Structure formats: C-alpha cells, structure tokens
C-alpha cells in the first residue's frame, strides 16, 4: 500500500488513539522519514516508553499495511506544542499562543495593512465542526524563550503594557500555530 499523506495520517491517528494517546501530527518527509507526534493529558506528559510503545505498534502496522518507509520517528510535541485541530484550541483555552494566518487580518488596533502573525492568549473557540471561529487576544507576548532573552528581560525595565486587541477569525484561516511557554533558565 503506497498511502497518500491523508490516508496514512488517518491510519496512524486511529492506531495512536487506540493505544490511549492523543494524536497530534503525522508527516511524511524526505528520505523515507515518517514523523509521528503524540501527546497525553496525563500528568507527566509523554515518556520514552510511550514513544517506544507507539513506535513498535506502528512498525507492525506499516508491515501489515505494506507502507513504504525507511525511518520512523515518534516523539512528544514539546513545550511549544502545535495547535492543529479545533480540539487543541479548546484544550488550551487561556494559554499563550503564536500563530500565522494565510492572509492579513484587519482589525481595529492593527496597523493599516493588517497582520498575519499574532501572539497573545487563546480566549475560546466556537462554531460547528468545519466552521469554527477562534477568539483571540492579540498583544506583544513578553516571555523568555532563550537563556539570552531571559538575561535581557531581567535587565530591562518594566514597560506599560497596552490593552490587548480582541480578534475573531475562522480556524480555517490559520496556517500554523503553537503554544508559547515561558521557560525558567535559572534552574
């Protein structure tokens, strides 16, 4: 079976969720690499043993289904977890996120040309399946993402934060999105 990306993704999703994990993504990349990303709502997140368990199951599945691949990589989504589906946006309501839209968004409080890249807080998601809308508070997120940024942030004086700009846009307009986590580099 030489699966298309969509068929492969659906097959992997069914298997991953059957094992009790949350399916995040499946990518077919160059040189025969299939990358599968899994998550869990359980305390502690995804462990190496979880990845091994899913990898073993997918290896057997690919053999049975005659799916051609050279390497299989199973991993957790990491701290800046991608937001792919409506359920991801619902699960992470109230969290900080960065996103890029397919086209600039026009909203009061934006520069005249609009914005494609937004950072802020996920307020909520509503609407029927296939027509979901994201409610999002746009503002400049000031979190340390690297040790250097943490050091610079510590030296910088606090500035007055501007009020967030509340925007609403269709989920289908989102090209890519991920969570933003503030990391503690002090140990």
From TrEMBL:
Question: InterPro entries under this entry?
Answer: Ribosome_maturation_RimP, RimP_C, RimP_C_sf, RimP_N, RimP_N_sf
Q: Name one Pfam family in it.
A: RimP_N
Q: Which family does it belong to?
A: Belongs to the RimP family.
Instruction: Summarize the protein's role.
Output: Required for maturation of 30S ribosomal subunits.
Residue ranges annotated for the Ribosome maturation factor RimP N-terminal domain, each copy included: 11-80
* UniProt-annotated location(s): Cytoplasm
Q: Does the keyword Cytoplasm apply?
A: yes
Question: Main subcellular localization, coarse class?
Answer: cytoplasm
* BP GO terms, sorted: ribosomal small subunit assembly; translation
Keywords for the protein's UniProt record, in alphabetical order: Cytoplasm, Ribosome biogenesis
Gene3D superfamilies, A to Z: RimP-like superfamily, N-terminal
- HAMAP family this protein is in? RimP (MF_01077)
Instruction: List the protein's name.
Output: Ribosome maturation factor RimP
One GO cellular component assignment for this chain's record is: cytosol
SUPFAM superfamilies of this UniProt entry?
A: YhbC-like, C-terminal domain, YhbC-like, N-terminal domain
